Amino acid sequence: MKYIYGPVKSRRLGLSLGLSLTPHKVCNLDCVYCQLGKSKQKFTERTEYVKIEEILEEFKAWIEQNPQSASELDFITFSGLGEPTLNINIGYLIGQIRKLTNAHIAVITNSTLLKDPQVRLEISTADLIVPSLDAVRQDVFEKIDRPAAGITIMEIIDGLVALRREFRGKIWLEVMLIDGINDTLPQIKELKEVIEKINPDKIQLNSPVRSTAENGIKPADKDKLEKFKDILGEKAQIV
Ligand code: SF4
């Protein structure tokens, strides 16, 4: 399969099937913790990187070949090999997938395009959005997520606040904590202030465990994660 991966069983999403809306590493960031390797190029244009009809054909074939798993799916996740909102037809794809399955639809995004009202509108028919926020200061954001030129953390935060205002589904904000970069107490306190403005349904604290784009990237200490979870309050969980 070219666009489908899984299904995988996880504590977070139950049984989920992933759909990739881009070719390998089509992304406007180059996160140090990326499991897809280092970006050779950063992509900022929204376009049809992958033909939606091809994804739909593959999805229909998968359902036909796997009727039992298809009936048990909890989620279809839009994520995969790059940033899904860079595909200009994401909204259309959500609508078409809805007609083919009763599973919930989740969009996993790096949040960079949420400043665009059109992008927010296109993903508004999902059930769950899992956006990332790894920093609240531009210098830390640049160190961890290495964005394409012109992407600012302030615009990302504004986009997340607007998403919460408009979106009727659930928002699970994901924060990736990395040893020695964004895992200090003052940074978590700043993050907490911003997260209160965003008001997600859940805050998911994550830390890199698999191989990463850069060498020497280490997960935040387990005790620290527990402490940060307590600071961030009852919506926070370690995933
Ligand atoms: S946003 Fe995701 S795909 Fe893009 S560089 Fe970061 S981890 Fe990799």
| CATH fold-type name | TIM Barrel
Unreliable stretches covering 5 or more consecutive residues: none
Number of helices: 8
Give the CATH architecture.
Answer: Alpha-Beta Barrel
Strand content: 15-25%
List how many beta strands DSSP finds. 8
Classification by helices and strands: alpha/beta
Largest sheet strand order: 1-2-3-4-5-6-7-8
Major sheet size, sense and barrel closure: 8 strands, mixed
The percent range for helix content is 25-40%
Kindly give the count of domains.
Answer: 1
Say which molecules are bound, naming each kind only once: iron/sulfur cluster
What overall geometry do the principal axes of the alpha carbons give? globular
Radius of gyration: 17 Å
Order of helices and strands: EEHHEHEHEHHEHEHE
Question: How far from one another are the termini?
Answer: 28 Å
CATH superfamily: Aldolase class I
Q: Output mean pLDDT.
A: 95
CATH class: Alpha Beta
